[in-house]
């Protein structure tokens, strides 16, 4: 059965692939699983029909028969578990790949989200620059550790895995900020992820939504 995911009918990022349907699309493409997309407006996301699938009124959600999931990380994990290609067969290597998924979402992403927030909502505050610098240093601290662990390796633990997919997608939010570029091996790691044919197909698919609207 072909799964259906939800995505923004109108993405605020104008097709840059920053919304969280992107890692799910990317995972589908990596494993060769066709999928359908139901586009939802901001108003529709808050309606009972969508809340039944995503209790927080957000995208993405995932439906496959009577299975309904939310949380992009959990959806990527589900896809990775059900197909070959995103998680190693070896049990220990598989556990380590899953660990990197959690590290991306619970250790790296929160400091990036914190750092982004003042840019969107608090630029007019007198303490904006000082706060931004503090939060930037918190991001640097995490990136320094990640950079040290990655070293000269291509991926975080052997071959490309769901851990890399989620980590690259999280790090993409820093592209062009200057922060990622302070760590050339991480910038190259993100570029390697973005160069994967599956990433390109997923990016093109979400970009097509924006282009269709832009006319
Ligand atoms: N933890 C959840 C998950 O990973 O699935 C978070 C889901 C989430 O944040 N969804 C956002 C959403 O639906 C879209 S991705 N927001 C609408 C709402 O809460 O009402 C976050 C996002 C949005 C826009 C950009 N952008 O424009 O660059 C980037 C990321």
Structure description:
- By secondary structure, the chain is an alpha+beta fold.
- The protein is built from nine helices and four strands.
- The protein has helices at residues 21-31, 42-45, 48-51, 72-82, 91-121, 128-150, 162-171, 184-194, 197-214; strands at 4-8, 36-40, 61-64, 67-70.
- Helix 1 (21-31) links the parallel strand 1 and strand 2 (36-40).
- Helix 1 (21-31) crosses helix 9 (197-214).
- S-(P-nitrobenzyl)glutathione is lined by residues 12-13, 18-20, 45, 57-60, 71-73.
- The site of S-(P-nitrobenzyl)glutathione (GTB) has 13 residues, from helix 4.
List keywords for this structure.
215 residues, alpha+beta, Glutaredoxin, Glutathione S-transferase Yfyf (Class Pi), Chain A, domain 2, four-stranded mixed sheet, binds S-(P-nitrobenzyl)glutathione
List the helices and strands and how they pair.
Blueprint: E1 4-8, H1 21-31, E2 36-40, H2 42-45, H3 48-51, E3 61-64, E4 67-70, H4 72-82, H5 91-121, H6 128-150, H7 162-171, H8 184-194, H9 197-214
Parallel strand pairs: 1-2
Antiparallel strand pairs: 1-3, 3-4
Helix pairs in contact: 1-4, 1-7, 1-9, 5-6, 5-7, 7-8
This protein binds S-(P-nitrobenzyl)glutathione (GTB).
S-(P-nitrobenzyl)glutathione (GTB) binds at residues 12-13, 18-20, 45, 57-60, 71-73.
Report the uncertain regions. Answer: none
Count of DSSP E strands? 4
Please report which band the strand proportion falls in: under 5%, 5-15%, 15-25%, 25-35%, 35-45% or over 45%. 5-15%
Straight-line N-to-C gap:
32 Å
CATH class of the largest domain: Mainly Alpha
């Amino acid at each position: 059965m072909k799964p259906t995911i939800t995505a923004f009918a109108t993405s605020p990022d104008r097709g840059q692939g920053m919304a969280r349907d992107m890692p799910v699309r990317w995972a589908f493409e990596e494993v060769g699983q066709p999928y359908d997309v139901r586009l939802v407006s901001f108003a529709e996301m808050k309606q009972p029909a969508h809340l039944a699938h995503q209790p927080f009124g957000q995208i993405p959600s995932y439906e496959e028969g009577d299975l309904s999931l939310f949380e992009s990380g959990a959806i990527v994990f589900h896809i990775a578990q059900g197909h070959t290609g995103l998680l190693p067969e070896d049990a220990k290597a598989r556990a380590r790949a899953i660990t990197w998924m959690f590290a991306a979402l619970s250790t790296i992403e929160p400091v990036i989200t914190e750092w982004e927030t003042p840019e969107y909502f608090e630029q007019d505050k007198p303490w904006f620059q000082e706060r931004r610098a503090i939060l930037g240093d918190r991001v640097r601290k995490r990136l320094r550790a990640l950079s040290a662990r990655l070293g000269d390796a291509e991926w975080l633990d052997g071959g490309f895995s769901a851990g890399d997919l989620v980590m690259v997608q999280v790090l993409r939010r820093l592209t062009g900020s200057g922060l990622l570029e302070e760590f050339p091996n991480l910038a190259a790691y993100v570029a390697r992820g973005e160069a994967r044919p599956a990433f390109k197909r997923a990016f093109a698919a979400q970009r097509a939504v924006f282009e269709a609207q832009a006319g």
